[in-house]
Design a protein that fits this description.
The chain is α/β, with parallel strands linked by helices and about 300 residues long. The chain folds into 3 domains: about 60 residues, no CATH class; about 45 residues, no CATH class; about 140 residues, Rossmann fold (3-Layer(aba) Sandwich). Strand 6, helix 7 and strand 7 form a beta-alpha-beta unit. Bound molecules: NADP nicotinamide-adenine-dinucleotide phosphate. NADP nicotinamide-adenine-dinucleotide phosphate binds next to helix 6 and strand 6.
């Protein structure tokens, strides 16, 4: 018989919030499994099991208590209890509240990065789907039209589109007011910027035809905040092109019947707010471009 010493140190965590530490403690001791020993149903009923399991999930998601995250699920789909409204900033669509939100396990989120103010990150994350889809849709040499180009999502899309199409491609920014037109011109992301009206489909089609020598856009990205701009998007795009309707004011009926009405075979994409990696792509744009970061800080942060 061999002599040996068996020493089993036991760490006992007791009290409020102890179960939340389960995953961290298991990791600390080099383990990977949890054995729960309990009698009757009290551990289930009291929520102890839920907390222990939740802690392993949080660990899986690389989050720790106190981390700040932004839900990337629409607020209209997020169970939210508002206890107090602290400040309403309607000019930048932000409201500060005290309350509690529930983010389900399948819900997408982004950690607020340490290298930029929270309000800046939140303003860009709000429209993260648009530049990320732009990155996927645009390729070198493409002619890209951004409608509503001087707005929040529009500016991000213009920057990303120019990066993707390169020197052989062309990015056209259709703005509306003089103010947003001048702002975009100053940013210098586009090959052409003009003040137009997406409610004038024929006028806009003629303008895009003139700028592209009759070629029209390979990719059109609609970022406006007003209805009835479907026909402008369709008419400015090549028959073989793609229209991405990021705008929530888009009518499926008008887009589908409008394209049919003018015999356009254009591919139309519904503005799914999510595309893989959209948060990282969008935050990265603010790091890459000082001009973008400055204008976002000035307008939205
Ligand atoms: N799909 C999604 O998941 C998702 C997520 C977030 C937001 N959205 C939607 O995306 C859209 C854009 O959001 P945003 O935050 O970028 O809005 P924004 O900053 O308000 O920009 C909208 C732009 O549209 C322009 N515009 C208004 N009327 C126009 C017209 N007749 N012709 C041409 N341009 C016109 C405005 O130009 P001026 O400023 O010059 O008037 C403005 O620059 C909204 O409809 C929003 O609901 C979608």
């Amino acid at each position: 018989m061999r002599n040996f010493n068996f020493h089993v140190p036991t760490e006992i965590e007791f009290g409020k919030g102890a179960a939340d530490k389960t995953a961290a403690l298991v990791k600390k001791h080099g383990g990977s499994r949890v054995l729960l020993v309990y009698g009757g149903q009290s551990a289930v009923k009291s929520g102890l099991v839920t907390y222990a399991v939740r802690s392993t999930k949080i660990d899986e998601f690389d989050l720790k208590e106190g981390d700040k995250i932004a839900t990337l699920v629409s607020l209209s789909l997020t169970p939210l209890r508002i206890d107090k409204i602290k400040e309403i900033r309607d000019e930048i669509d932000q409201v500060d509240i005290d309350g509690k939100a529930i983010l389900f396990e399948s819900g997408i989120y982004a950690k607020i990065p340490a290298d930029m103010p929270e309000t800046l990150a939140l303003s860009a994350l709000d429209v993260a789907g648009a530049p990320a889809q732009t990155a996927k849709l645009c390729k070198p040499g493409d002619i890209v039209l951004i409608i509503g180009a001087g707005g929040k999502s529009g500016m991000l899309c213009c920057y990303e589109a120019k990066k993707r199409v390169g020197v052989t491609g062309m990015v056209i920014g259709m703005c509306h007011s003089q103010k947003s037109t001048e702002r975009l011109q100053k940013l210098g992301f586009c090959d052409h910027v003009f003040a137009g009206n997406a409610h004038d489909p024929v006028g806009m089609m003629e303008k895009i035809s003139e700028l592209t020598n009759g070629e029209m856009a390979d990719v059109t990205i609609n970022n406006v905040n007003v209805p009835d701009t479907e026909m402008t998007s369709i008419l400015c795009t090549k028959d073989t092109g793609v229209v991405y309707f990021f705008s929530m004011a888009t009518s499926f009926t008008k887009a589908a019947l409008g394209a049919e009405g003018v015999g356009s075979d254009v591919t139309m994409i519904v503005g799914n707010g999510y595309t893989r990696g959209h948060a990282e792509i969008t935050l990265q744009l603010l790091r890459e471009s000082k001009e973008l970061r400055d204008i976002f800080t000035e307008l939205y942060a």
